Amino acid sequence: MRIKEGLRVGTATAVALVLIACGGGSNNGNLSGGGGGSSQGYNLQAGITNMVTHGLSANVTLSGSVVISGTSTSVTGSGTYTLSAGVGGGTFNGTTTTTAQTQTLIGTVTAAGQSIPINQSVTDYYATSNSNFLGETAAGAYDVAQAPFQYPTTVSGGESGTLGTVLRYGDSTMSTSLGTAQTTYTTTAPTTQNGPLGITITTKSYDTTNTLVETDVTNYTMTTSNVISFVSSTAQATGGTITATAH
């Protein structure tokens, strides 16, 4: 579930893109409590493993605004967000036992009276043995988890924690630093007995001067069978804010 590909804005027209990711989590800083129905029996590590193994797909509506020539311009659109089934046997940052999963967003956005096609992808890498998150690659980006993101085997509503830090580079040589990204999570108790647990992943990206340049907030649900579904994702940067919502 990853860090983020983020928000892309063209010079004359807006090309809005949100590719979501969930960094995963540890139990550091967990809070007890929450409300609503029972939230027992949720295993985030099993949910991540299911997601990496089988993938997922959602039709999404895109909305928000971007800055074009100094003017905030509304953006609308639609598309399909897909996580492929993971493929083992790959290599990432020297680790040979990895599973690769491709995220894609294909669709169309409209801004300033023009329609722009979207066809973007990133690749996430997980440890084959336990599906711990290792990093992500995309055009012009090579993101490496400072330590593999480990997922809690038991989560309930009202928890929060630090998930990990990603070191961002321009390419696989890791010779040019782009900064860091820090990922946290919170959970929301189900509203019905044994209903889906809400999971919110927040990733804040910083440049090399430690200035915040983008915030990504992604919402998921997870059932007691540890099946994860995408709900929505919002990317906020100086160029604008874009939200992708499943429908």
| Total of DSSP H or I helical runs spanning 4+ residues | 1
Helix content: under 10%
What structural class do helix, strand and pairing data support?
A: mainly beta
Q: Got a strand count?
A: 13
Give unreliable regions as ranges.
1-39
Major sheet, described briefly?
12 strands, antiparallel, barrel
Please trace the helix and strand order, writing H or E for each element: HEEEEEEEEEEEEE
Radius of gyration: 18 Å
The fraction of residues in strands falls at over 45%
Coarse morphology: globular
What's the average pLDDT? 80
- End-to-end Cα distance, whole Å, is 19 Å
Count the domains: 1
Strand order of the largest sheet: 1-2-4-5-6-7-8-9-10-11-12-13
Describe the protein's architecture and organization.
It is built from 1 helix and 13 strands; from the N terminus they run H-E-E-E-E-E-E-E-E-E-E-E-E-E. Strands 1-2-4-5-6-7-8-9-10-11-12-13 form a 12-stranded antiparallel barrel. It has one domain (44-246). The two termini are 19 Å apart. Helix content is 4%, strand content 56%. Strand 9 (177-188) and strand 10 (197-206) form a beta hairpin. The chain has 247 residues and is mostly beta strands.
List keywords for this structure.
247 residues, mainly beta, twelve-stranded antiparallel β-barrel, globular, disordered N terminus
Quick summary of this structure?
With 247 residues, this protein is mainly β. The protein is built from 1 helix and 13 strands, in the order H-E-E-E-E-E-E-E-E-E-E-E-E-E.
